[in-house]
Design a protein that fits this description.
Blueprint: H1 18-33, H2 37-49, H3 55-76, E1 84-91, E2 94-101, H4 102-110, H5 120-131, H6 137-144, H7 149-157
Antiparallel strand pairs: 1-2
Helix pairs in contact: 1-2, 1-3, 3-4
């Protein structure tokens, strides 16, 4: 959007998969709560791609994002589990409105919790199981076919 544009912009993001919705909501909240643009971008990239979240990113998630979601969960705890509930956060002239079912709000909060038994080694193992699954070999091969060798290596390793 050009710098001089001053009209409101509404974007609707919708998905059936709560994992996708949660990731998108978390990344948007990071963009809104982190004042330093470069820090926000780095954090978003790590939340999107990385197996291991850096301590600085975890601090943002735990100290800045989690309280926003906890506040909503606390306010809606007595609502019916089938209810659709909305929250609008405003940050200066920017805002984010998130509409979820009550159970989805509760699950969103758990995206902020790192399981105690999850080690770095286990996280890498889970990622490799998903990304390098034998059943997706054909998909990966077709995707890599037109990539230059350097990108093939990067795609395979990361």
């Amino acid at each position: 959007i050009p710098g001089g544009y001053s009209q409101p912009v509404d974007v609707t993001i919708n998905d059936r998969d709560l994992d996708i919705v949660a990731r998108n909501a978390i990344m948007l909240l990071i963009a809104l709560v982190v004042d330093d643009f470069d820090e926000a971008v780095d954090c978003i990239i790590h939340v999107w791609y990385s197996v291991i979240i850096r301590k600085s990113d975890l601090d943002i998630l735990q100290q800045r994002i989690r309280p926003l979601i906890e506040s909503v969960c606390e306010k809606i705890k007595s609502k019916a589990s089938s209810s659709q509930l909305a929250k609008t956060w405003t940050f200066g002239h920017l805002s984010l409105r998130l509409v979820l079912g009550k159970s989805s709000w509760d699950r969103l909060l758990f995206f902020m919790v790192i399981p105690e038994a999850l080690t770095a080694e286990r996280a890498y193992q889970i990622r490799a199981t998903v990304t390098l699954s034998e059943c997706r070999k054909d998909y990966r091969d077709r995707h890599l076919l037109l990539q230059p060798p350097s990108r093939r290596i990067a795609k395979h390793r990361f």
